[in-house]
Amino acid sequence: MNLTLTPPQWDDVNELLAFELANRAFFERWINARPEAYYNVEGVQRAIENALLEASEDRAYQYLIRENGVLVGRINFTQVRRRYYHSASLGYRMGAEFTGRGLARQAVALGLQKAFGEHALKRIEATVRPENPGSLRVLQRSGFTQYGHSRKAFLLDGQWFDLLLFEVHAPALSHASR
């Protein structure tokens, strides 16, 4: 399996829109729905423009996950905090037909290489609902450790859910001179 992470580009618009539409109901089981205005060419173009702007300003980094050139998911590092922290929050989503094959774990490993290398981050945080065992396993197998449990912290479709809080730190040697 050949997995790659690439920032979204203008020529990804149609493929990204098709991916989001095909997986919309699947994603909305776990995260809040995107605005309806997102689900058209102009909406995805605005999202790509925003992703490129946030990356240029060191505020967030978004990547498309491809297996042998096919879009299978997305991964992002948001809420980049530099001064004193050098941290970010991890988020990822795999298309429904691509779950259960270890692709998310491999994508997280590649993403952490970028976060700790190219982006020189020191700490990555992630949250997961206890009802999402697949995502929980991805974080645990990717070296994340749980450091908290936030009760009734996430509102989805009018219902409050708990969140488990996870973190992973950059390998000590990679930041020894920073």
Descriptive report:
- This protein has one domain (3-175): Gcn5-related N-acetyltransferase (GNAT) (Aminopeptidase), CATH 3.40.630.30.
- It is α+β, with helices and mostly antiparallel strands.
- The longest helix is centred in the first third of the chain and has 16 residues, at 41-56.
- It has a 7-stranded mixed beta sheet with strand order 1-2-3-4-5-7-6, sandwiched between helices.
- Helices cover 30% and strands 34% of the residues.
Helices and strands in order:
Elements: E1 3-6, H1 13-27, H2 41-56, E2 61-67, E3 70-81, E4 87-94, H3 103-116, E5 123-128, H4 133-141, E6 145-156, E7 159-169
Parallel strand pairs: 4-5
Antiparallel strand pairs: 1-2, 2-3, 3-4, 5-7, 6-7
Helix pairs in contact: 1-2
Q: Note the run of SSEs as H and E.
A: EHHEEEHEHEE
At the first level of CATH, the class is Alpha Beta
CATH superfamily: Gcn5-related N-acetyltransferase (GNAT)
Taking all Cα atoms into account, the compactness measure Rg is 16 Å
Helix content: 25-40%
Strand content: 25-35%
Short description:
This protein has 178 residues and is α+β, with helices and mostly antiparallel strands. The chain is 30% helix and 34% strand.
